[in-house]
Amino acid sequence: MEEVCIRKQEPSQYINTINWLSNKQIQRSFGITKEVKLNEHIEWLSKQPNTEFLSILNNGLHVGNIVLDFNERHESVFLQIYIGDFNCRGKGIGSQAMKIALKYIFVDKQMHRVHLKVFEDNVPAINLYEKLGFIKEGTERDSHKMDGIFRNQLLYSMLSSEWKREY
């Protein structure tokens, strides 16, 4: 059985993140339009006081990341997740990591709402979010331009009461 956990990202794991964010497929999934450099990433992290940058570990190996951007006033968090190690995709690791993250968000942090955005062509991610109980709130039409093409993003959310019914 694979052991999945999430932990605060350590500086030694930043290089994995930079390598993954340099991958064209991951860039497309997140709408990244420029090269991400280590020093810029470290500077960005230092300017995010309400953001937690977490590593997804599978049997102790760093295989992906979760970013949680908290809005304490509204008891809400914006979530981003990706499995950067392509050999670990499609194995349920993202699903396990999401379940751990949702428990952390709703139980430990006592948030009321979690929301995320996903490009409408990212079917595996959409399937995961819907399987976990996220509700589609709407579509941001032509919200992101990449390589000269406008793309739609879907907005999904889950409330703490919905999570409690599911889990």
UniProtKB/TrEMBL annotation:
Residues 13-156 form the N-acetyltransferase domain. Coiled coil: none annotated. Keywords: Transferase. The keyword Transferase applies. PROSITE patterns: GNAT. Pfam families: Acetyltransf_1 (PF00583). One of its GO terms (molecular function) is acyltransferase activity, transferring groups other than amino-acyl groups. This is Spermidine N1-acetyltransferase.
